[in-house]
Amino acid sequence: MSEQPVTRVDAAEPQWATAWPPAEGAERARTLFRDQLDHEPDGVWSAPGRVNLIGEHTDYNGGLCLPTALPHRTYVALSVRDDDRVLLTSAQADGGALWEGRTDRLGPGDLQGFPAYTGGVAWALAHDGVLPAVPAFEAAVDACVPFGSGLSSSASLSTAVAVALDDAAGESVGASDAGRVRLVEACVRAENDVAGAPTGGLDQSAALRSAEGHALLLDFRPGLSAEESARRVPFDLAAAGLELLVIDTRAPHENADGQYAQRRATCEAAAATLGVATLRDVTPDGLDAALAALPDDVARRRVRHVVTEVQRVERFVALLESPEGLAAHADELGALFVASHRSLRDDYEVSCAELDVAVDTALAAGAVGARMTGGGFGGSAIAIVPAGTEQDVARAVVRAFAERGFAAPQFLTTEPSGPAHRES
């Protein structure tokens, strides 16, 4: 028997998305502002993207999530105006072209795309009473948060605009954590009502309430105070000889395309059927009875994911806070990652071929654990890998993608970073 020819796949070296130093990011936004608007801004503000460690599609179900802020940020140079005009430009939108609008045309039904996440925030801040009226302003945006990657570039933009308008208007609501909860609510309103993306608050909370060196345990049970709704959890993989690798699959990711909203509607209908305010009220002990009471298999699988995912968040946090430390529990933390991914893939059905290949390949290449992160339907996966092996794991993923004809992925490594703030 003659030997069969070996098919060779030439895969390029991994491409890495690096975070800009804050001074560089601020200067980029300031330069764009000067070039487009011909004067200096009042200041520059920034907000981070986020990676969610575990707790997916639980925020709008009253559950628990554990995000951490990325060092990759969106930078907004901004000035307030004394008329009724709004002028916006972005290095990432429409080639940096200047968009012009008016303060009375920034609400629901008025805006799409980039202006919805900027002008829409101004409308929401006034609607929620954070600002006394919709402000006239001009802003220039530049960002190193990978766009469309499931790392919350949209919330990074909206929250950067929120802190900028709050600060520039002299309100300083965001000076306290309770005030930042109000900014979160306004940003969620802007995304829901103006941009048409039914996000649940995880991304905006991570951008506004995170702390360096920590993950942020968020509790979305209705009626909690600001203090009760968030707790910072130490998260230092480096001390345990580990690294968090983010794999941007480059598969298209879009929150406003109907799939996300469909999952949310199914969960809300299931909660109504079960007679509970949110699915957070379904306890693990009561899960079997709840599943039996639901009318179809799709609803049962969605509910099972939410209830078991909340359990996984609780266990993950307990391991991080255990006296033995993170290193002693790395294997179980990794197993929770894998269980979360399987639940999202099989019960919630929000994974895709690229995410599954990224997860399976990372595990085969030595990752301690891996899972998709974010809303799904594309976007990114994350993997806990032994420090120093991230290049090897990334190369394995690049090769696996090339073998299947997928677009080349992009990678970044991250450490827990700080929240939205003024840069200069």
Automatic annotation (TrEMBL):
Top-level taxon: Bacteria
Record EC number: 2.7.1.6
Residue runs in coiled coils: none
Ranges where the GHMP kinase N-terminal domain occurs: 120-208
UniProt entry keywords in alphabetical sequence: ATP-binding, Carbohydrate metabolism, Galactose metabolism, Kinase, Magnesium, Metal-binding, Nucleotide-binding, Transferase
Gene Ontology terms: cellular component: cytosol
Molecular function, one GO term: galactokinase activity
Occurrences of domain GHMP kinase C-terminal (ranges): 330-401
Galactokinase N-terminal domain residues: 32-79
Name of the top EC class for this enzyme: transferase
Presence of keyword Iron: no
GO terms for biological process, alphabetical: galactose metabolic process
Family stated for the protein in its record: Belongs to the GHMP kinase family. GalK subfamily.
Descriptive protein name: Galactokinase
Species the sequence originates in: Luteimicrobium xylanilyticum
Name of the gene encoding the protein in the UniProt record: galK
